[in-house]
Amino acid sequence: MNSLQNRANAVMAFSISAIFCLLGAIAFSALIIPSSPTGAVALDSIKVVTGRYDKNWQDFKTRNSEFANTIMRIDADLSSLFHWNTKQLFVYAVAEYSTPTHPKNQIVLWDTIIKRKSDAVISKRGLNNKYSLIDVNKKWTDVNANVSLHWNIVPYVGFMTYGHSKASEGYAFPLPSGIQT
Amino acid sequence: ICVFKIPGREIPIVHRIIDRHDSPETGKQQLLTKGDNNIPNDRGLYQELYINKDKMWIEPKEIVGRVQGFLPYLGMFTIYMTDYPLLKYALLSGVGLVVFLYE
């Protein structure tokens, strides 16, 4: 009864069950940790330029696509989101607006990865948007966009959770300034 | 973060959606994705096959699933089995030996 094979089997079965219970405890306990993150994005200026090329734009067929260049400021305190199960935080600023053909549009302007609690307080000024801000219809006439900060907690084990700040008030997009890219 | 398959490619890709444009009248939704560690977005991947030469967006019907959580290293067993077939044969023959000798 107490041969090597039986003992090895019992040890393996117990340790695997214990490991899965521990992982389950980590995953579910991370859901109920209270946190109080704050964040806000504001646009200091928007300029619309027309042209064929922009930061990471791939469709060069249209000669006057309208691209918006924004200067943003971001203030956030996300340090309360770092607990024992946080591997990293993926933080991104989203602009949301609606046009007559597409009632809901969301575009990510800027993102960053935060790996340590000491880096979790963000206070940035004069940021340019990292990715091209261009609409599906390639025109920015009569559009009002609001910006908000979203975050995604990437865990070591367990569930991916998301959160976001309140949307800012709307910013109107100006007419193209005549600068060509 | 969603899992999607581009038509013509058999391996699904797990990337984050960064742009979204909805138009309820035509029922279409256009999405753009990007890997977190990549600098460019995924349009290079969408357009890699000649049949998808001008593909700028993906649609919800190409999305196969959504990431809900993480269980690290759970797939390493399958990866070791496929990368080192000797391990697979050793394990199978070990199981066969146990069945024959201990029953």
Automatic annotation (TrEMBL), chain A:
InterPro entries: SPC3. It holds the Pfam family SPC22. Transmembrane segments: none annotated. Keywords: Endoplasmic reticulum, Membrane, Signal-anchor, Transmembrane, Transmembrane helix. Its main location: endoplasmic reticulum. It is a single-pass type II membrane protein. Belongs to the SPCS3 family. PANTHER family: MICROSOMAL SIGNAL PEPTIDASE 23 KD SUBUNIT SPC22/23 (PTHR12804), SIGNAL PEPTIDASE COMPLEX SUBUNIT 3 (PTHR12804:SF0). This is Signal peptidase subunit 3. It comes from Linnemannia gamsii. The lineage of its organism: Eukaryota, Fungi, Fungi incertae sedis, Mucoromycota, Mortierellomycotina.
UniProtKB/TrEMBL annotation, chain B:
It is found in: Endoplasmic reticulum membrane. The keyword Membrane applies. The chain crosses the membrane at residues 86-102. It is a single-pass type II membrane protein. Keywords: Endoplasmic reticulum, Membrane, Signal-anchor, Transmembrane, Transmembrane helix. This is Signal peptidase complex catalytic subunit SEC11. Signal peptide: none annotated. Catalytic component of the signal peptidase complex (SPC) which catalyzes the cleavage of N-terminal signal sequences from nascent proteins as they are translocated into the lumen of the endoplasmic reticulum. Specifically cleaves N-terminal signal peptides that contain a hydrophobic alpha-helix (h-region) shorter than 18-20 amino acids. It comes from Linnemannia gamsii. The keyword Zinc does not apply.
